[in-house]
Structure formats: structure tokens, C-alpha cells
């Protein structure tokens, strides 16, 4: 299926690992041009190099003596920025204009969490989640949507969480601000759809990304907090889904990339659960 993303200028935040990196890889495979954004410049460089040389479709009409399945090197740029910085959004969009010639697609994926009981959440913990999940995406959408609207076409996907639909006690600040991110997505969808800019959200559940699986990540934190083994925590998380397994970053990316595409022309203001059925709701 041709998703109509060839040549589209795409910005992905939190792109050096996990879901963000999987999204960038999938967009590149569709022939999109990319600006990867994250805080760690070296990690971005590593991710960009891997994405640029990964197999993908050859340009339409191209003829080559290369081996079957070989493709041209993808166009991948990087920009180091912290989306919680109030000045970051304008800088990121300016970088997209300079390096890509504009912006057609924005994926707000930057985020993190930690296992912190409600009574132990500090002012800084609350502020971090507010800036990551609400203010950062808001500033980026505010900067990017008008540019997309000038061309009459744009896609914005906010990567929320299943815990924004069913609050989790492991980090209430994360859950509350992910709920707010879903509301923000709907507000922007209604404000910009008539001008060709479609805004949607996805809500992943537990995923085998570095956030969960890396040493010291959410699996290890939950194990320490509950007096259980890492394996027990992961098995319990998988068992809470009808599917019986955690999601893979590439599975989440597939839904996100579809929402970025021409094929999603009639999807506006949606909040797609991509959580293996973890949240028992059809909303």
C-alpha cells in the first residue's frame, strides 16, 4: 500500500530510541525526509546513520543495477533539543524549514516516566511531566500547524499512553498529563482540520522499548518497588492484555505512520489505543 509519504518532510521528537526511532525508520522506508529530534546529539547521530542505510523502497521510476531490495540512502537530519525548553519548538521548526525546506508531518513522541508513588511525587516530577506531555507538544503544534496549513496539508500525531485513558498508580503525574495530552490533541484537531492539518493521538501500552526494558527501566523499577523479579513484572504486564504480550516499538510505529499518511485523510481527533487491548474500552 502506497501511503503517500514519499518526499514528505517529517519531524519526530524522542527519535533516538524506542518508539520514536521505530517511527523514523518506518517513515524513511516510505521515502519521507526526516529531522530527528532528541536531547542526546550522539544518540541521534547513531540513530540517523542506522536509519539512512536501512533497506527501503527505491524512488519511484528509479532503475538501478543494484541488488534486488536495495534503495537509495534515506534523507535523515538531526537536531539536538530538549522539548521542555520554551524556546525549543521555534528552533525545531526553524531547523525543519532550513534543512528540509518545510514541515509536513510532526510526531510528538518525546517523553519518559518513572515508578514513583503518588505521595512521593515532587513539584519537579509534576513539572517535568507537564512540560514533556502538554506544554512541549503544544508549543510544537502551535509553531508547526500554521506552516502546514499554508500548504493545505499536514499531519500531527501525539504519542500519548494507555495510562492517559486508565490512570496508573505507578506515576500519577505521567497519567494525568497524558490525559491532558489527549484533550490537547482533540482541541488542535478541531482547530486545524478545515485547513488540511489533521491531528490525532495514539495510546500505546507497555512496550518492549528501552523505557521498559533497559537496565534500571520501568520493569526493574517496578520489580524493586513490589518485591518481585523483573521477569514476574513483565509477565504480569503482558497478562493484563487480552493479546497476552507487550507491544513492540515497530507495532506502535505502524499505527503512527498510517496516521501520518494520505490514507488517513478521514481520521481527525482520534485517540487510537495501540495497547494489545490493555484498556477495556472502545473509546
What is this structure, in a nutshell?
The chain has 283 residues and is α/β, with parallel strands linked by helices. It contains nine helices and seven strands.
What does this structure look like?
The radius of gyration is 19 Å and the shape is globular. The chain folds into 2 domains: 9-54 and 72-205 and 248-272, NAD(P)-binding Rossmann-like Domain (Rossmann fold, 3-Layer(aba) Sandwich); 206-246, no CATH class. It is 43% helix and 13% strand. Residues 57-71 have low confidence and may be disordered. α1 packs across α9 (249-259), α3 packs parallel to α4 (123-151) and α4 packs parallel to α5. It is an alpha/beta fold and 283 residues long. It is built from 9 helices and 7 strands. The protein has a 7-stranded parallel β-sheet, sandwiched between helices.
Walk me through the topology.
Elements lengths: L8 E5 L4 H12 L3 E6 L2 H12 L23 E5 L7 H13 L4 E4 L14 H29 L2 E6 L12 H21 L4 E8 L5 H4 L4 H9 L3 H10 L9 H11 L11 E4 L9
Parallel strand pairs: 1-2, 1-4, 2-3, 4-5, 5-6, 6-7
Pfam families: adh_short_C2
GO molecular function: oxidoreductase activity
Enzyme class: oxidoreductase
**Low-confidence sequence ranges:** 57-71
The end-to-end span amounts to 27 Å
User: Helix fraction?
Assistant: 40-55%
- Tell me the overall shape: globular
Which CATH class of the largest domain? Answer: Alpha Beta
At CATH's second level, what is the architecture of the largest domain? 3-Layer(aba) Sandwich
CATH superfamily of the largest domain: NAD(P)-binding Rossmann-like Domain
The secondary-structure element order is EHEHEHEHEHEHHHHE
How many helices in DSSP terms?
Answer: 9
Looking at CATH, which topology of the largest domain would you report? Rossmann fold
Strand content: 5-15%
The number of distinct structural domains comes to 2
Mean pLDDT reading: 92
| Strand numbers in spatial order across the main sheet | 3-2-1-4-5-6-7
Largest sheet: 7 strands, parallel
User: Care to count the β-strands?
Assistant: 7
Going by helix content, strand content and strand pairing, the class is alpha/beta
Return Rg in Å. Answer: 19 Å
EC number: 1.-.-.-
Protein name: SDR family oxidoreductase
GO molecular function: oxidoreductase activity
Family: Belongs to the short-chain dehydrogenases/reductases (SDR) family.
